[in-house]
Input
Amino acid sequence: MTRAWLPVIAGIAWIALAGCAGSLDSLSAWMHSGGPRWRAEQADTVSVRARELEARGELGMALDHWRLIADIAADSKAAEREIQRLQEKIDTEVRSHYEAGLAKLKNRRSTDARNHFLAALRLDPTFQPALRQVRARFSPFPFRVYQTVPGDRPASVAKKFFGDEKKAFLVAWFNRLPEDRALSPGSLLILPAWEDPGPPEIEEKPAPEPPDLSLDVAKARLSTGDLQGALELARQADPSDAKAQAFIHTIQLKQAAQQVEAGRLADAGTSLAAVPDGFEGKAALSQKLDLALKQRQFSLDLNNAREMFDQGRYGLCLDQAEMLMRRAPDNLETARLAAEARYRLALEYFDHQRYREARAVLENMEEDHEAGTALKATVHDRLVELAQVHYRNGVKHFINEDLNKAIAEWEIALDCDPDHAKARENIENARRLLQKIETLP
Output
C-alpha cells in the first residue's frame, strides 16, 4: 500500500519545489528592483560611505560607490550629479599631480616627480602622459630618453643612437610612430639602451644637443639664425629670470625686423607688441614698421585711384590723387595721375557744355600738360562768348523794364567772364534804380 503511493507523493513534492523556486526568483527580482524602502536605505548607506571615502582622499573608490548608487537608487539624478562632480575633481587632481611631477623633474627631484606621476595614475590608471613619464624615466628596463630637434625623423634618430638608419623601426615601435614621419621638435622619445659603445658621430654634422633648456643652448640656436627654435628654448626657462625674459624680447625684436623686411607687416606688429615699451631697439623698429605700413597704404590707395581712372570715374580718381599728393607732394606718379584725371574730367564737362565747371577743374592744371593747357584756353573762349550772350539777354530784360531778370542775366555773364566790365556796371545801375523805385510813394 505504502509503495503504491510513493510515485504520487514524489510528484507532489516535485511540483511544490518548482513552485517555491519560482517564488524565490520573483523575490530576488523584487529585492533588486525592489522595494522602494530597501532601495532608499541601501542608497543612503552607500552614499555615506562614498562621502567618507572622498574625505579620506580615496576619490576612485568614492566614484565607484556613487556609480553603484546610480544603479540602485529610485531617482539616480542626484547620484549622476555627484558622479560628474567627482569625475571633474579627479581630472583636476590628476592634472595637478602631473604638472607637479614635471616641475619636480625640472628641479632634478626625480623621486618626488615619480611620486606625483604615480599619484596621478592611482586616480586615473589610463592617464597616458603620466604613464609615459613613468615608463620613460623610472622603468627598471634599460631605456633612455631623447628630446627631438628640428629635422629629426625616425631614421635619423636611429642613425644617431644605433648607428644604422635601418633600425628606424625600433624608434617607431617604441613610440608608436610611423617610420616615415617627420618628428616635431621637443618631442620626448623612448629608446632602448644598448650595452655597446655610444652612438657614432654623424659626419660633417655636430652631435645632437642633449635636452638642455639653458639660455646658453638658446643663444647657440640663435647664432645659427633659428629664431623660432631659440625662442621655444628660451620660453622654457624660469619666467622670473630677468635675463631670460630680456633674451626672449631680443628674439622677438629680431623676428619683427625680419618680418618687416619680408613685408609681413601684420606678423611684425604681433611680434613687436610682445616686446615691452622702452626695450632697446623697439622705438626705432616701431617707426620703421609705421613707415612701411604707410607706404603700403599709399600704394593701395594709388592702385585704387588708377582703377577709378580706368573705369572712367575721373572725379573720384582726382579726389583720391589730390589726397595722395597732400601726403606725398614729391610723388611724380601721383602728380601725373592727378593731371590726367583733371584733364579727362574737364573734357567731360566741356563735351556737355558745362563750361564753368570745366574752368573750375582746370584752374590747377599743370602748365606742362599741353592738352590740359589747350583745353583751358578753349574753355575760356567759350565762356567769354557765353558771357556776351547773357549780357545781351540782360539788356533785353532791362528794356522791357524787368530789372530783376536783367540783373540775373548780367550776373551769369559776370560769372562766365569776370572781366566783363559792362555787365558789372549795369548790375550796379539796375540795383540803384530798384532802390529808387522801392522808395517811391
